[in-house]
Design goal:
By secondary structure, this protein is mainly α. Helix content is 85%, strand content 0%. The chain is built from 15 helices and no strands.
Length: 403
């Protein structure tokens, strides 16, 4: 339910939520660079070690179906700091895991807790920021997650090459989550009380209201494809550079971390880009740039080119993704928390599928197929969503004209 808040309170809350997004982004990408170290420490292949990413993603995606409706009912901001506290405990448990099977289960708990951070923060912004300002505000918010992904990618490589290893990485994230949870709780303790929507809590009804909306199904299909063809293969890029070009994990991770820099460049220029090019051109260009990045990584014989290609891919990603998530906040405004949670469910469910496929192909078929498929599929996804946007605009224009 929308609250009437001052611009100053909204700005401060968005900043704190961006800090929460920083650690969520770091948690999302930290294991990419740690996979070879985990494989070595637990005597597994990199593909098998990818279970720590898959388990996190599946748990994250499934818990969206719980956190979204609960956020609509009990307050999105309240559940965000509770989720952060849960992430702190789960990250600590992951650092203390003595066997790979235990680590997989603590990552499940971590993914379940993390499910209440990013999507509910986006939904909170949707509740409190007008649509015409929302794309720019969301872009400012995602600077937190992008910085976190960059830091997580880089830190994962540094920890992987150090004596601290994955235990040190998880302990550092646990501390960051705990501090952010306290700061957000302290700020929100004087916030206006949340007003729940009228009627009883009917989770199935709220989910049904979203998935039966035609435009919501288009947005959800697009983000599912993004998870499968983008986030899945990206998880193996540091391992790919390490094995193909003989780079250290820390250097390979630093190159791939420029993916987040590309996203940050988008975030800093989002307002002008939206005004000049519009959403349809943005998603079309985003798909082409993502595909070009993967194709370049496949064809390039020079390892340092991975950095600029990762940056290009990151910029293209957020041309596409930020447009998707802006539409996600407006799919079903009455149940915005549920709608954005389903959006995240599609993204991270797609990532789990993508990591599973990419891990299998990496172990059994090599890297060529793993990189070639997204090089083709991502431009097609951008084209399909751009076409859907054009048809939607034409339909809405015809309806206004008819009136």
């Amino acid at each position: 339910m929308t609250q009437t808040l001052s611009p100053a309170r909204i700005n401060t809350t968005v900043t704190l939520m961006a800090c929460a997004a920083f650690f969520s982004g770091a948690a999302l990408r930290i294991c990419d660079s740690l996979l070879p170290r985990l494989a070595l420490d637990f005597n597994h292949t990199p593909g098998a070690a990818g279970q720590v990413i898959i388990s996190f993603s599946i748990a994250y995606g499934l818990m969206q179906l719980v956190f979204g409706p609960l956020g609509d009912r009990y307050g999105k901001a309240r559940l965000i700091w509770i989720s952060l506290a849960g992430c702190a405990l789960a990250a600590l448990a992951s650092a203390l895991a003595g066997r790979f099977e235990i680590l997989v289960w603590t990552r499940v708990a971590w993914g379940m807790s993390a499910a209440g951070v990013m999507p509910l923060a986006m939904a909170w912004i949707g509740d409190n920021v007008p649509y015409e300002q929302r794309q720019a505000t969301l872009a400012r918010f995602i600077t937190g997650s992008l910085s976190g992904m960059m830091a997580g990618q880089l830190a994962g490589g540094l920890f992987a090459d150090s004596s601290l290893g994955w235990k040190g990485a998880f302990l550092s994230l646990s501390l960051g989550f705990a501090i952010t949870a306290f700061l957000l709780w302290y700020w929100l303790r004087t916030a206006p009380a949340h007003k729940a929507p009228a009627g009883g809590l009917n989770v199935a009804g709220q989910l049904r209201a979203v998935v039966t909306a035609p435009w919501a199904r288009v947005v959800l299909a697009a983000v599912l494809a993004e998870g499968i063809f983008l986030l899945g293969p990206i998880s193996y890029l540091p391992s790919y550079l390490h094995n193909r070009h003989g780079l250290s994990l820390s250097f390979a991770s630093a190159l791939i971390a420029l993916y987040a820099v590309g996203g940050l460049i988008y975030a800093l220029t989002a307002k002008r880009i939206v005004q000049k090019y519009g959403e349809r051109r943005m998603v079309l260009a985003g798909g082409v740039l993502m595909g070009t990045g993967f194709l370049g990584l496949l064809l390039s014989l020079v390892p340092w080119l991975a950095g600029p290609l990762a940056l290009l891919t990151g910029f293209g990603t957020y041309l596409f993704h930020n447009t998707l998530q802006t539409h996600a906040t407006q799919m079903v405004p009455a149940f915005r928390g549920t709608a954005v949670a389903l959006f995240a469910f599609g993204l991270f469910g797609g990532q789990a599928i993508g990591v599973l496929i990419a891990g299998y192909t990496y172990d059994h078929l090599g890297y060529t197929f793993m990189l070639l498929v997204p090089a083709i599929a991502l431009p097609l996804t951008g084209w399909a969503f751009a076409r859907a946007l054009r048809l939607r605009i034409a339909t809405e224009t015809a309806a206004v004209t008819a009136k």
